[in-house]
Amino acid sequence: MEWSFRTAEELAAALRAGEVTSGELTEEAIARIERDDKVINAICVPDFDRARAAARAADQARARGEDRPLLGIPVTVKESYNMAGLPTTWGMPHHGNYMPAEDSVQVSRLKDAGAVILGKTNVPLGLQDIQSFNEIYGTTNNPWDHTRTSGGSSGGSAAALASGFGALSIGSDLAGSLRTPAHFCGVYSHKPSLGLVPSRGMVPPSAPALPVDLDLAVVGPMARTARDLTLLLDVMAGPDPLTYGTAYQLALPPARHERLSDFRVLVLEEHPFLPTGSAVRAGVNRVADALADGGARVERHSPLLPDLTEGATLYAQLLFSGSVARFPVDAYERLRTRAAALSPEDQSLDAARLRAMVFSHRDWMEANDRRELHRHGWRQFFAEFDAVVCPITPTPAFPHDHNPNPLERWIDIDGVDFPYFDQLVWAGLPTMPGLPATVIPTGLSPEGLPVGVQLIGPMFEDRTPLSLAELLEQKIGGFRPPR
Prior knowledge:
The protein has 14 helices and 17 strands. By secondary structure, it is α+β, with helices and mostly antiparallel strands. It holds the Pfam family Amidase.
């Protein structure tokens, strides 16, 4: 029997029943990687010897009667997580030899849960792209079409899952880095509520692995089913034992509903800053139709929805104001000159990003205050609705574009070009206020490319969009292996 595309839940049941050993699962996964990853390039740092040792240990533990959530299940880890004995480079050549001394908190949790880590997955330079390529490890291709990107920055993890290289993976998300690759590769991912999952040890190479509270950024699970997302989230979530964990324990509320007919959902398919491509719009509407067919209350408009234009602008400001903190002084001064030359009438996202790069602390505080007003608006919204269904990006996976200047790249939406970074507006919708968002595949575009949508839920009610994802998976189908 071939196990490579079975779910983590199915593998756990088979392991408990003695139908397969962790050693057998691990050898099958390694053989598939060695055979197929030459053209995908998802696993940038294999760790097969230690994986085999971990699998033997898992089988021995099970023989002693032990059972843990991920005991013996092969998984992968995004390259950006510190893992003792393996390099952490973030794709930056000058850090090519950096080797952290200890595991990140999430790698430790995977190991404690019994997972067998096959290796690390590819990322873009500095994690700062919607594609995954760098000078050290090269380019990760989309398993559905090798001429197209797998997404970024967790593109290696999404491509690995779609290719059957392990049952689960962990990634991170600041600008859709969990969600865009899942959408492009036809798998599932979950961006947790801000602060729910500790990120200590998911830091740039040579930076101290401190338990800091990140702004906007989260770490989270990737899988091939919604139930597997929940399984992995339960391993990852909970306060860092070095900080809040000394006083608090996690108690996530249950999902609001268990039946599709009980959900109240707002469906969005258009954004004021850019159009949605026809393939993605069709995916959104497939989900809307499935919801309506299942008896859910589906709305297309609500006066309770926080303003999308202001929300996208705030997200651009908060995201890009933090991107220049370590810029050289001369580069920063050039940005100040360019920002000062902008017309006051220019309210484009490009202008918002440039102005944000030279924000004063006062400017940032004003933007943060407006964010808090948006968060309050979302609380009022989720008193009336349970979830939002909307795009992740306006298109399926696009062709590789390695222009070294991202400002000279464009995104083609049904034949019309738009600024490359404008496609982040949908990613920013839940990120700016810190809301959870679950990605589900909805089927294929006319070109045969995967299309996903995100299900946005209330803050710290992560089980609600995950429950909706599981119900929709039963209704419209889920992951399918690339042809």
